[in-house]
Each structure stands twice: as C-alpha cells, then as structure tokens.
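Figure S7 source data.
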Amino acid sequence: MSDHSSSKIIYEVHANNESGNNSPSNDRNEFSKTVTELENCRGNKTESDNAEETSSFERSDKWVWDTMAVGHACVKSVVPLELLRHIYLPQQSHDRIFDPTTRTISYLQPRSYLPVKSLIQGEKKRILVTGGAGFVGSHLVDRLMLIGHEVIVLDNFFTGRKNNLSHWMGHPNFELIRHDVVDPFLIEVDQIYHLACPASPPHYQYNPIKTVKTSVMGTINMLGLAKRVKARFLLTSTSEVYGDPEEHPQAETYWGHVNPIGPRACYDEGKRVAETLTYAYMHQDSVDVRVARIFNTFGPRMNENDGRVVSNFIMQALKGEELTIYGDGLQTRSFQYVHDLVDGLILLMNKDYMEPVNLGNPDEYTIREFAELIRNEVNSSCKIKTLPAPTDDPKKRRPDISRAEQILGWKPRWPVKQGIGETVKYFQRQMEAGLIG
Ligand SMILES: O=C(O)[C@H]1O[C@H](OP(=O)(O)OP(=O)(O)OC[C@H]2O[C@@H](n3ccc(=O)[nH]c3=O)[C@H](O)[C@@H]2O)[C@H](O)[C@@H](O)[C@@H]1O
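Tokens for the predicted uridine-5'-diphosphate-glucuronic acid complex:
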C-alpha cells in the first residue's frame, strides 16, 4: 500500500470531523474499516521498508506517513491519529461548555464514546494502569481503550487529573479508582503498567520522602499483586537512572552516575530501587517483568505548571513572557513525542523480552536550541532570561535506542517539531477554553 492511500484513509475520518459531522457514532463505521486497513498496510510492509525505517537516526522535519496512524500491527495497537486527536485536540469540547462571561462550565449529559475495538475472549485483557490519570498514563489509557481492552486506572491525583480521562468515565470497559499505590491494592488483572510517580523535578522534589515511598512501596505493592495474580508487570523507569552521565549516548548497559544524596536522588535512586525490586521479583518469584527507561517526553496534557522545560517554554512563549533558561543552556536533552512512547510501551509489554529497554528520541538539542525552536513554533519574539542551573542537572542526555530497534522493531516516528506543533495547539486551545491562564 502506498503512502498516498494510507493518508487518504485517515483523511476520510478527518473529513467527517471537519464537516461538523463529528460525533463519535458517526466515526464508528469509518473507524472499523480504517483500523483494519491500517493494520493490513502496516503488516504488509516489506523487509526493505523496515530496514529503511531503522536506518541511522537523523533530525528530520518531514511528516512521515506512519505518523498518520500510531501503533504496531504485530501487537494490534494501530489507531488512526485523527481518532486520538478527536480526544485531545477536539474542535470543541465533547462534554462541557465554557461561558467566558460568567467563567462557568456546564457539563453535558448523557454522553457517547468513541468506538472501541471489539476483541474476542482471550484477546481482550484486563489491564491495570497506575498513574493512569497523568500525562503519559492518560495517553496510554486512550490507546488501550481504543484497541479494545478493559482498563482499570489507579491514581491519587497528586499530579494526575480526572479531566485527562473524563471522556471514558462511565464506559463499560473503564474504571477509575482514587488510590495511592503506597497502600496495597488487590484486583484480578492480566497486565500491570506501573507508572505512578511524579516525574517533574519540582513535583518530585516537593516531598522527597513521599517520592521515595511511591517508588519503593508502590513498586513492592504492584509487584506483589503481579506475583499473586500472575499478571505481567511493566515498570516505567527513567533516563534519570543514568544520572549525570559520563557515557554518551546512554545504552542500557551503562550503570549510571547518580548523586545518592542530592536533590534529585529521591527520584533517581527511587527508580533505581524500583528496577532492583522488579528484577528481584523476577528471579525470586518468577514474576514476568518488563522495564522501560523513558527519556524526556512531551505532548498534550502536560500540566501547564509542571515545571519541565517543554511546558514552561510553550506557556511562556504563548503569554509573551521571557523564556527561562537554567544555567548556560548548553546542557542537552532528547525529546520524544508521547505517541511514540505509548507505541513503545505497548510493544514492550507484549514482546518476550525482560531486560531494560530505552524509549526515547535520539534527536538531541541544547536547551538554547530548543528555546529557539519553541519561539519559532509559537511565532513569538519573546526574550530569554538566564536563571541559575539546578543542582545535579544532567549536562547531556541522549538515548542509545539500538536495543529497542532490534528487540521491539521500534523507533520514534514523530519529528520533534511536529510534536511541538501539536503541543502548542493543545495549550492554545486550553487557554481559549479558559482552562489555563
Ligand atoms: O521530561 C522528562 O521526561 C524527564 O523530566 C525530568 O528530567 P529533566 O531532563 O531535568 O527535565 P526538565 O525539567 O524538562 O529539564 C530539562 C532541561 O531544561 C532545563 N530547564 C527546565 C525548565 C526551564 O524553565 N528552563 C530550563 O532551562 C533544565 O535545567 C534541564 O537542563 C525528570 O527528572 C525525568 O524523570 C523525566 O523523565
């Protein structure tokens, strides 16, 4: 199937939306056809197509055809991009009307839902997502729901938000439970994606003891549950286990360079212990485990006050404020768009591989270059302000993703610029809707 025809499939869904005929039920017929066709076209890719995809990584602003859908046919996670956008970038809100004069919100009932795939018994899994109301968690939940699974979310709403999942509330395949993973929780499930933990430096440093407790006790509780119900367990670890790295780029074999008593230690060491626990349960109790080491990720539903560089720069540029660069701005990061991460997590969960796997986009920017990129995307001429560098701020970070490429057949498909474009649009719409200021 050619690039052209796959774009057309997506366009048909898009065209329905643009014509104002955008209710979930109107998408339904198109959706089933679209997913089947997209799965076929992904499944039919030749070896040479794949070889081309895994060629050396270069910064690119090209919109590749694969980004019109997300997911991988081999684990049945393909979803048309327009369907996902219908959730996080709706033309107008599905379930509420904001009145700017009185600054009130009217919630609409009854509601309808986007179509989810109908899976046969055995294919349909019961999946627990801890931290599922957060930024990454909610995108993972969207995908798992759309591809037909039953999803149970645990969240204590410290950084997660109900709004991120409001479009699934009441759906027969969905359950949201307010629960803190530091306390035990019992449920029968097939798979556990363990995401619960604040990830932004200001958030995890706000209460470092709680951060360590979340990583250690939360992971023990979820591993204990996995052991008891024989569920497969996936830990979302982090590039922070490499600390301020002395090896570049960072491969999974690198043991890291972490200050164990610094302000970042609560998160870095917490996640390192979480990995230790995961492999202890694997060796001692034969728990079936997966470990993803996630590098800097961005996208819609980041908290505007999150404190991380992507949301800070975008919000500052949109409000015409100065962009705050910490330190000299020569430190580097490699940013991946959230859909790529979700693709990688679902692949990893469903493949037979138990060692840690890096998931990140190797496209590396200095923070100064990144500020420039955001300024261009927002079309802003705002100035740059330099603030002191945070203690132990890693000086460079870039994933070596050879393992993910070889084992999972995964590599990022979203150019950073393209992802930033969507994220800017998201924050703009949130501002227009009066949800953030
Ligand atoms: O985004 C993520 O996924 C990661 O975010 C943080 O790691 P960090 O790389 O420090 O993320 P940011 O807070 O976004 O900072 C990135 C760089 O930008 C700088 N920065 C941040 C914010 C800002 O306003 N200005 C600025 O220059 C920071 O000093 C740092 O050098 C977390 O510690 C990671 O666990 C998490 O995986």
